[in-house]
């Protein structure tokens, strides 16, 4: 199992994210991830750094790190544009990009409205997810943000890794019966015990958000 850290990207500048990425590489963390939000959930007055430029800058500086958004929302861009962003990132960091995608939900709807984007139904968002996946290179690792059963079925249809946010080890184990899974979420209370449990449940990755001891997290790699 690989381990990753979510970068602190809800900021007016990227200095904190750059510092964490450098520390992560030194500690032996496998990858760094960045949220795809216009602002932090429920806080439209706060800043957020766009994930693709941030990840591109980090991938150039740190050539051992895998990079990915967590997750790129298909409702924020047309399929061709989103696929091109991944293709560009792949040119900067060949073999080190995960195409982590998600359909979004009602909790992030205010961002799309603020940008003047059309409000899509769940079915329309799922079709956009399919469209993006079809445009991506077959060799690129792909994740799908887990959600409703119909979204999860798309992950299985395209052999994507199902990313389950803040799930339990039991939920991971159950989902792993149908295909590959990975875990992401806030730092667990007992991180070592929890991450070991995710690995035993079949997770291919554990991606932790929050203030984390990177050396301890790196020591939990499978």
Structure description:
By secondary structure, this protein is of the alpha/beta class. It has a single domain, classed as TIM Barrel. Helix content is 41%, strand content 19%. The chain is built from 9 helices and 9 strands. The protein has a 9-stranded parallel sheet with strand order 3-2-1-9-8-7-6-5-4. Helix 7 links the parallel strand 7 and strand 8. Helix 3 crosses helix 5. The longest helix has 14 residues. It starts with a strand and ends with a helix.
* pLDDT averaged residue by residue: 95
- Please identify which CATH superfamily we are dealing with: Luciferase-like domain
Give me the side-by-side strand order of the main sheet: 3-2-1-9-8-7-6-5-4
Along the chain, the helix and strand elements come as: EHEHEEHEHHEHEHEHEH
* Main sheet makeup: 9 strands, parallel
Let me know the number of strands.
Answer: 9
Quickly count the domains: 1
- Sheet-strand content, in percent, reads 15-25%
């Amino acid at each position: 199992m690989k381990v990753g850290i979510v970068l602190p990207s809800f900021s007016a500048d990227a200095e904190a994210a750059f510092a964490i990425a450098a520390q992560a590489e030194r500690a032996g963390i496998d990858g760094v991830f960045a949220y795809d939000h216009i602002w932090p959930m429920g806080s439209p007055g706060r800043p957020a750094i766009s994930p693709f430029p941030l990840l591109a800058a980090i991938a150039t500086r740190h050539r051992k790190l895998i990079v990915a958004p967590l997750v790129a929302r298909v409702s924020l861009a047309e399929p061709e544009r989103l696929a091109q962003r991944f293709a560009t990132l792949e040119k900067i960091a060949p073999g080190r990009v995960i195409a982590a995608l998600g359909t979004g939900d009602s909790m992030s709807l205010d961002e799309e409205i603020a940008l003047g984007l059309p409000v899509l139904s769940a079915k329309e968002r799922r079709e956009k997810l399919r469209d993006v996946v079809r445009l991506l290179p077959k060799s690129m690792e792909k994740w799908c943000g887990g959600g409703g059963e119909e979204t999860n079925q798309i992950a299985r249809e395209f052999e994507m890794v199902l990313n389950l946010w803040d799930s339990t080890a039991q939920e991971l184990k159950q989902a792993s019966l149908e295909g590959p899974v990975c875990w992401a979420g806030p730092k667990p209370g007992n991180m070592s015990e929890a991450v070991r449990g995710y690995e035993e449940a079949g997770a291919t990755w554990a991606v932790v958000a929050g203030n984390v001891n990177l050396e301890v997290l790196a020591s939990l790699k499978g």
